[in-house]
């Protein structure tokens, strides 16, 4: 996080020409002592920054009160503002400072820098249990360029059944979900999501993307992920839970748990989503001290079978 802040302080210097430790402290919501330490750290890394004392003093870059940001290449400007986007782990203060720098960029860079900041979402939890890590897919850079430049792409794709297709899509954003990468795009059949490791070709057409009004990638991905989670866990099970077990249930089940109201005996009604009756029974059997399943009957039957098997193996 400090590296992000140092980079943001450097560009703050470039934009304003001179800053004081108090101004840096206010901008990044840190103490003046920390601000002075960060400015010293910039100098120690070789950045030509120095301080002047007295009235009107402060920190500035060697060679003039202002450094021209036009020295940035287009790619560097886009990379910088990826840090300010929803995928970044930077603090809100750092993101806010980086976004302010858009105004200091040369006009030709500004639109693409802003597009870069909203082109990518990081959704760290993965679907499924696999822990195998994969390198970034082949066409990731080309598709992100298409999102940032706002151009349609002729996409070659192999679906989960192995069928090969080719279609023209309107790239809207890139999402990293665990180790997998996805393209969110508009198509003639509506919005679709494509796994980028299944893309076999990505050729820009030069035609502009038709972007839905008020499109927000983070909000759209939340809707997509919720839909996928519900398809992966189509079964709903009803139960009542003792209040002291609810925190454990939330930790184990996450978004698959819906909490309802209290019953007359003080327990709490819950709905739990799962893949199947058998899977839910095995997942929840160890929570019998807190949880009573009320339906469907098939889950209760599986729990009975699990209990009988445990008694037969471990009973007296």
Automatic annotation (TrEMBL):
Pfam families: HTH_11, WYL. It comes from Winogradskya humida. This is Transcriptional regulator. Keywords: DNA-binding, Transcription, Transcription regulation. PROSITE patterns: HTH_DEOR_1, HTH_DEOR_2, WYL. InterPro entries: CBASS_pafABC_assoc_protein, DeoR_HTH, HTH_11, PafC-like, Tscrpt_reg_HTH_DeoR_CS, WH-like_DNA-bd_sf, WH_DNA-bd_sf, WYL_dom. Residues 2-67 form the HTH deoR-type domain. The keyword DNA-binding applies.
């Amino acid at each position: 996080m400090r590296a992000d802040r140092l980079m943001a302080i450097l560009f703050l210097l470039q934009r304003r020409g001179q800053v004081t430790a108090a101004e840096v402290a206010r901008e990044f919501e840190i103490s003046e002592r920390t601000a002075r330490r960060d400015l010293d750290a910039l100098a120690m890394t070789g950045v030509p920054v120095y301080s002047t004392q007295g009235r009107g003093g402060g920190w500035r870059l060697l060679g003039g009160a202002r450094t021209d940001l036009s020295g940035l290449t287009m790619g560097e400007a886009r990379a910088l503002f990826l840090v300010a986007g929803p995928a970044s782990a930077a603090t809100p203060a750092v993101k806010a400072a980086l976004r302010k720098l858009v105004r200091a960029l040369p006009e030709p860079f500004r639109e693409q820098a802003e597009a870069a900041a909203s082109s990518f979402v990081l959704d760290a939890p993965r679907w499924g249990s696999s822990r195998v890590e994969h390198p970034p897919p082949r066409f990731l850079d080309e598709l992100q360029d298409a999102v940032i430049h706002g151009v349609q792409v002729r996409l070659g794709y192999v679906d989960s059944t192995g069928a090969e297709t080719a279609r023209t899509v309107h790239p809207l954003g890139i999402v990293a979900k665990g180790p997998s990468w996805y393209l969110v795009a508009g198509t003639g059949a509506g919005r679709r999501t494509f796994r980028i490791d299944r893309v076999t070709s990505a050729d820009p057409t030069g035609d502009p993307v038709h972007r839905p009004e008020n499109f927000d990638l983070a909000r759209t991905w939340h809707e997509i992920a919720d839909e996928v989670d519900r398809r992966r866990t189509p079964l709903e099970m009803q139960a009542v839970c003792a209040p002291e077990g609810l925190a454990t249930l939330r930790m184990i089940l996450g978004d698959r748990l819906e909490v309802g109201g209290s019953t007359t005996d003080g327990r709490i009604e819950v709905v739990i989503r799962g893949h199947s009756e058998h899977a839910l029974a095995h997942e929840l059997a160890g929570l019998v001290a807190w949880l009573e399943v009320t339906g469907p009957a098939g889950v209760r039957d599986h729990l009975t079978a699990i209990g009988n098997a445990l008694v037969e193996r471990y009973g007296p």
